[in-house]
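A further point concerns the way the authors explain their paired sequence and structure data. Showing the layout once, in full, would remove most of the difficulty. For illustration, here is how one protein appears when written out as sequence plus structure tokens:
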Amino acid sequence: MINVNLLSVSNLPKLNKLRKLELSDNRISGGLEVLAERTPNLTHLNLSGNKIKDINTLEPLKKLPNLHSLDLFNCEVTMLINYRESMFALLPQLTYLDGFDADDQEAPDSDPEADGDGLDDEYDENGEEGEEEDDDEEDELDEEVIDDEEEDEDDLEGEEEEDGVDDEEEEDEEDEDDDEGEEDLPQGEKRKRDLEDEGEEDPEDEEDEEDD
């Protein structure tokens, strides 16, 4: 609620989970006890550019135990003598006042807890893990496909080998059938057939021709 001409925070709703409240450049001069009642878990409060003139006005902030960053730039209270020492004494839970700690060390540019950066980091980490899991699943699928292809190749090779064995068995059976057929012939016919296969004539046929 920056620069919206607020005179007080009396109408602020109850926000138990609110961590960071921006009220800079308004016209607030007091009534800060409402913050302790309705935003009990504040960690960052920015009141710079308001009409806060004395330290007593800020005393109700003692009831915000988690408050560790308070900004009062351009408020008249900052012109008081020993302003910083008095504020750290009043609010011992404070770590940073106007962007600096009690030892004048500057605060970080942003606070992950207040800005939600921690949530973004967690989301990024989960996203990367999801990608890695997807990559692992893709690798597993690729391995399964390769295994299936190798099994198909093995099956084809096995079928070809079986076909080769079957052809050899069929040829052997045909040779055996021929041999059995020859054994069933009479001895004279078998001898004649053998001579014909060798291209020779039967001597009996030669004698018959000579008699003629």
In short: Residues 147 and 159 are 18 Å apart (CA to CA). Helices lie at 33-38, 83-90, 112-115, 117-184, 187-198, 203-211.
